[in-house]
């Protein structure tokens, strides 16, 4: 079975990991890197798929070319390029593993190399949107199958037998009729001369022969390096003659430097220079905010120097941003009609005629990403050439933006992608790399720009702040006949264009217009909301507020009708069906709707699975309660049950979490489990503590003492993960983000069950202690 | 001139005596395994072992460790096979991995002091080390595994 009951107990990963030291030269002799071989990117044909994905529509699409992604050295070492960024999801393991599977490489003889940013060469590299496995399962299989075919053809030629008589098996090609065998290394040089087979004719492995895919028995490729301190993150890059910099940025978004006095800073031992850093007016996408940079011989000196700076700022118009006042504005907007973004039936009339109307107004504050590694980048700009080393989710975008910012051709920019110490969407924005590039250019030396945690909190591209108001009209039997959802929140589009006041289509498609309940009269509205700081993607984005509101409302309806939460939820989901999109061109995570429709049978299935495995309805001790929630996001289906315990003083703990995920065909269930375990922690963090607030335009929180996240002593007692076995042709779907949205509403439904108190405003904070 | 032994090697420093050990290790000595996560002793990413105790190198000055012995993740075991490191690999603990050096050093210090910690003792001793990716369940299992023999 594919269920993972206790992934923490898996043993024996180590033997699968071997980090080979292969000199570059031996790779260069191998398959794939011979000079004139790189062709214009063959973007894969649509027909080659059992299903279609949106991969081909991403900027630069997909490249299926074994010569770009695979190299076989004469000693048999197979090097596979990882072209997506590793931020903790396991993608640097999972995608190369697909190639290794399909080419019959022995994973213990595979070395993974990170691709630099070059989307023409590698295809889209924007590691975001929970897309990597979804978009690359088939292409990586095709790349592996091509490489295998080339090795088989080379062996067949050597032996003078038809290619149909030979077969690659575990790192060698075998001719069973004669009992002859040749290792991949022995075939490397000849295989490199074979032409790349047409995608259409490739024979992919029968899934029943898979050795690695769907098994979850390999450790992550960086495991040894991470546990010994050798893994290289952005901050770990050191270049000869490199300077260390920190920057004092305008405390208010859109603020400007008026004057600065560098004298005291220059007296700090180790400080070498104080200089102005170029900034752009707000909003300007990912361009730096500017300010004053302190350059030193080490980071400690640079920080101390910055503390000694005397700075005067002009805060500008956003100096008025105040979270308490802004919340009132959002609440008021949510109580008045707004832009209608979805309409079915007549929700107004049905609400008026309803027997009972349940109203929930939910507030969710700004959140900061606080990835463990604060933003950091190293740049070395010489003349019209730039080289960057940085933990970026989007190396292609970074390359483009560095080129534009420095005014040099993109071909002159090299972006080396280090490991990311967490990303969660923050590192999709390359402002920190642009800062380093600009400083290096001006200094004429390599420089590292290190953000402190305070910088990270003060200058994040924050998760939005929102009020979600839902009115549900019930008839006499308790059936929901009307649903009005108003969602008010500053939009991410405001970071790209001044005056963007309504949600972008992709934001509407995250839990608002795609809401799957079977209700006759539905109205979704999106009243205006202005932004006063930089808004950006945060793991699962608008799904957080939408799932929170919708799934909390399910709990409220269950209470109002005296029914079980799970039964209420299933009744609202309604019959198993393919939901017809309620709006034209509904954003569907960039995927074609035919391949990835809203399938309520799958939605019901995860609810039923988690209820069964998670023992929904079990007797819990006094002070405990169970809550359930389900949400489809990133075209995956996830349901979570949370058990809470609340003591006499109102102190909350979480003894148990159960989550069921249907992410279609999957690659590495072990990493799926780790993502879901992590999503429970992130969900609990945001539900219990998460809030970034503004006063006088400035972020009030500074560090992990006032922007708290869950620590081990508060983490769930146990988190169980259940993965739905996919159907034969179920396309793969997202994993990195969708675990987050159902957690907070499941928690609040559990709190209601335990204590009878409905929490509608996040974070929980001390609300239970009052 | 401040002298300090790091991973068995004598090192010296004649710059600012207040320089946090973290930045000496990372930027001056090139030992980048120790990470910066908060600079305020709030996250544990910078944890090293001084003599036999886990300390946060971000708030410990180089002067504070003069004449003492500092062990970083690079020096925990010559081949990276300390029981804690082995347990970590068996459980496949890390996600992004950035907090893990600090977690491992904290766990190693815990086991030096208390070779058989209980469930609650593990959760308490490790509470100073934040993992934003949320690997706590596996960290807990790995510490337990290390304490019972890998
Ligand atoms: S960096 Fe030292 S505790 Fe966070
Ligand atoms: S593994 Fe990413 S912070 Fe712990």
TrEMBL record, chain B:
<dbReference type="GO" id="GO:0046872">
    <property type="term" value="F:metal ion binding"/>
</dbReference>
<keyword id="KW-0479">Metal-binding</keyword>
<dbReference type="GO" id="GO:0047121">
    <property type="term" value="F:isoquinoline 1-oxidoreductase activity"/>
</dbReference>
<feature type="domain" description="2Fe-2S ferredoxin-type">
    <location>
        <begin position="1"/>
        <end position="76"/>
    </location>
</feature>
<dbReference type="Pfam" id="PF01799">
    <property type="entry name" value="Fer2_2"/>
</dbReference>
<dbReference type="InterPro" id="IPR001041">
    <property type="entry name" value="2Fe-2S_ferredoxin-type"/>
</dbReference>
<protein>
    <submittedName>
        <fullName>(2Fe-2S)-binding protein</fullName>
        <ecNumber>1.3.99.16</ecNumber>
    </submittedName>
</protein>
<dbReference type="InterPro" id="IPR002888">
    <property type="entry name" value="2Fe-2S-bd"/>
</dbReference>
<dbReference type="InterPro" id="IPR006058">
    <property type="entry name" value="2Fe2S_fd_BS"/>
</dbReference>
<keyword id="KW-0411">Iron-sulfur</keyword>
<dbReference type="Pfam" id="PF00111">
    <property type="entry name" value="Fer2"/>
</dbReference>
<keyword id="KW-0560">Oxidoreductase</keyword>
<dbReference type="InterPro" id="IPR036010">
    <property type="entry name" value="2Fe-2S_ferredoxin-like_sf"/>
</dbReference>
<keyword id="KW-0408">Iron</keyword>
<keyword id="KW-0001">2Fe-2S</keyword>
<dbReference type="InterPro" id="IPR012675">
    <property type="entry name" value="Beta-grasp_dom_sf"/>
</dbReference>
<dbReference type="GO" id="GO:0051537">
    <property type="term" value="F:2 iron, 2 sulfur cluster binding"/>
</dbReference>
<dbReference type="InterPro" id="IPR051452">
    <property type="entry name" value="Diverse_Oxidoreductases"/>
</dbReference>
<dbReference type="InterPro" id="IPR036884">
    <property type="entry name" value="2Fe-2S-bd_dom_sf"/>
</dbReference>
